[in-house]
Amino acid sequence: MDTLTKNTTEVEKDLFPLLGTDYVEFYVANAKQASYYYQTAFGFECVAYRGPETGSSDAITYVLQQGKVRFLITSSLNPESEVSKHVALHGDGVKVLALWVDDAEYSFKTALERGAKEAIGLQKTSDDNGEIVTASIHTYGDTIHTFVERKNYKGVFMPGFEPKTTTVPVKSVGLQYVDHCVGNVELGGMNKWVQFYQDVMGFKLLITFDDKDISTKYTALMSKVVSNGNGYVKFPINEPAQGLKKSQIEEYLDYYKSAGVQHIAIATNNIIETVDQLRKNGVEFLQVPDTYYDTVMDRVGSIQESLVELKRLNILIDRDEEGYLLQIFTKPVQDRPTVFYEIIQRRGAKSFGKGNFKALFEAIERDQELRGTL
Ligand code: FE2
User: How far is the CA of 228 from the centre of ligand 1 (A)?
Assistant: First the structure.
């Protein structure tokens, strides 16, 4: 009886329970080459494809998978298409943060009733493997959330896609699942979008960082983190704050031309092995000075990993009340200084690495200076 009461309360708290991130879809100029990069550099495996050969005359999509992380890499053959226009304006970037739900129609209807704007209406598609139900709502910038219901589907991904195995030699780097996805929004937009996730999606506010937490001599930003009820989906939202020079968030907004996804944090069980392999594959990371490691142990206390290895790979460490975490950030992965990745290993800590912010932002500023955008 206790259990029943508890479950009922949890369901009531969650407007529409999210089972996790279903996929992240990127609109890019050249899906063939971008998907090759994610396979060779990040160790994703190509599992499905759609294109002219499968009856999709316009959009080409490669479906990549590693652990529970699923990326869709999409480009278009038609310069007038929505995909091509998105790429022309934003460069390569994230279009869809898809959310795995048990009931897409209910989730969509609930979100619309609570003020969401429809992006793509309810779609039911089927093939020999069953049925998929999807529907999409707008969020910040040109980004959308697609609700995906796949409980009646047994295929590799979705109707319209064919299973594909790749000829690219792929070795997993141990990426497990999407830990959080961060959005950059315009000055004054942070509270509006936090309110959106609270009102429309039933998320709760987890943490607030202001410019006292996140500032260097030159730049500042503010951030709030929202999470769904079960904590499977976490969205930090950043906005620029007043600083002496241009903040990294302003630089992002200038190049992306709107609000959009700034970074995707992916969890691993062994960050040393993961980052070692990513570096061997040519992935570039932000570099904090070696002096970071002179004092870090005073701040975080004892840890299981070798500090020598962490220093060699430039992995950062932070601790909160519940444990510690290890993290590292890549440089932007396309020509524009926009989207990048975080690799994170949690050892109890549920926070986001506040103790590393200063060292990180100084590292970003050194790169901004090289680009002449500080
Ligand atoms: Fe992060």
Answer: 16
